[in-house]
Amino acid sequence: MLDPEVFSTQRLVASKIGLEHIDLIAAMHQNPTMMATLGGLQDRQRTQQGLETQVQDWQQAGYGLCVFHDRASGAFVGRGGLRLVQLDNQPETEIAYALLPEWWGQGLATEIARQARAVAFAQLQLDSLVLFTMTTNYASQRVAEKLGMVYERNFERANLPHVLFRQTRQAWANLG
């Protein structure tokens, strides 16, 4: 299993997400500003189910999502990393992140995404990564563009319109 510390960045400390983070994640999932970017509020039961899936991802794949804390203050920032997903009945690995609004606009989502991509391609040797977000989440679309990811298509997920980006390991290697 991958050491979750590899997801840490210059400004953020990562730790493997687990059931012990239910209070942090449940509170985050009740933040209306943040959850507007993820399709709406989630109750504690749905959050618990999501955490159980994320724990299984770590057990099955050896990687997954992490919780992130600010290196300087220790404050909880959000979650992110690599997530196993199904798209068109095909397994994919997604670069995922969700930050509390007070941490927006500081480049942290891009920092998390860049580190997750480096782990995926350099250490795990994955061939391809996806990043998807709601069509109205322009900030996350900008993160994908900063990473050099390529727009693939629009699609529906959880009955909501999303935009899908992809990057291959070869394209990442060619970025220099």
TrEMBL record:
InterPro entries (alphabetical): Acyl_CoA_acyltransferase, GNAT_dom, N-acetyltransferase
N-acetyltransferase domain location: 27-170
One Gene Ontology term of the molecular function aspect: acyltransferase activity, transferring groups other than amino-acyl groups
Protein name stated in the entry: N-acetyltransferase domain-containing protein
Species of the source: Herpetosiphon geysericola
